[in-house]
Amino acid sequence: MSILQLPKGSAVDNSPDAPACPPWLLLLDDPEPASVLFVGDPDRATEQWFLEVGAKVSVRPPSGGSAPADVVVVAAPSRRTLNRRHALAAERELINELATEVGPHAALVLPWPVREATTTVLASHGFAVLRPIQPILGRPARKRGAAGYVTLRDAENGSVAADPPRWLATLSRGQTWAPGPGGWSLRVPSAYPSQKAVVTLAPTPTAPAVAVLKLTRHPRFNERLDNEFTQLRQLATSGGEASRRAPAALAAGQVAGMTAVVEEAVGGLPFLDSTTLKPDCPLATSAVEAITALGSSTALPLSGQAFSGPLTELLDRFVVRNNPPDVVAGFLAEQIAVLADHEVPGVLFHGDLGTWNLMAKDGFVRILDWESAEAPGPPLWDLAYFVRSFAVRAGRRRGLDRDRAIDRNLVASSPFNQAATVWFRNYADQVGVTNELLAPLFHLGWMHRAVKESNRLEPDRPGHYGPLCTRLVLARNRPGLRSLLSQ
Q1: Domain 162-265 classified CATH 2.40.160.20?
Q2: What span, in angstroms and rounded, lies between the C-alpha atoms of 20 and 449?
Q3: What is the pLDDT of residues 33-45, one digit of tens each?
């Protein structure tokens, strides 16, 4: 799929209530249970997940008999309506009841921390493995479903809590990045289904991570992670500076129908935790060098018509959604025509190269999260996106809102604009972007970003990039922009 052919359903079913693999499921040895019993009201997205993957789903109130199941999820703590003394007694009674009912290798998912008394009851029924849920989840995810412990009935060769789940041990068996006991941790940074589950892998609990495993939380998102693996593998074959700026793709597989990709762990600190946010920041220079190397090492000559056709379709969508002034729509159409008449280098386009996707170590910046990468894509767009996000962050440190930061740092003449002008010119020289293509690529990049953003917004929400595209077109003769685009 071309980078300019935006997926129409890229944001479909990405609300917190959409079906997604519950994070606690990845703590089980087998994340593909054939049957699931919810005790109490189930989380709707979690229940829908199991129905979609073909598991038999049963629901019963906190009191009442039921048939055995592979996984039993206590979805509503009984102690919420009881005083502490009665709650503890009810909790033990419920666990005794459930542990008696479940199958020989079933798992219990409990929404409360397991106390010593509860542990004793569990152990008496053969549940010897406990893995905590609450410490591994971000706050948004804790609001959904259970937030206590997964308990696994101990089989003859049962694992212990520090061991990786069996699905992870199987996937990593024999690999140099295989985690040792306690050398793994799971985190899910958001309640939104498109956010990946991330497992950090290390040889021991105290050793640095050697790899990370990224896992989609629904098969509908597999394509993006499959694409990341493909693009990283292809980038590695190019060698040179660009390949050093990205993590190595080590392996790929599937877990419960979801794509799993293992990548080299990138050490250091997030770019935003390390940068001075000044235009002369050495880390900003390193980031620009990485983006420039990505463009120059992957550039291939293409006819501008390869981009002009898809861009014309995007312009139609931009006009319908944003209703820009006629002068703006006309200017963008003119820029598409300019591209059509020139040779344009096609490059590997990262697609989300903001400051948040950069890591810095010892002054060297590397680029993360390649799900949106496409080749061939338009040049300059990655650099422009980084410069905008850097300018906004720098402005906010001085108390400016997003629009004022862009106006001061990019549109007007300023030290920041002067540094960005040098970055743009160096990029153009090394990638092969002629001066007459700078303005068309710059403005059409924001049009593309606006259409992409609108794909995930409600119809009545304007977004950021549509108004930004219009403002930058109308401000194109301001001194800062003229300098930036070599005019």
Answers
A1: no
A2: 27
A3: 999 988 888 888 8
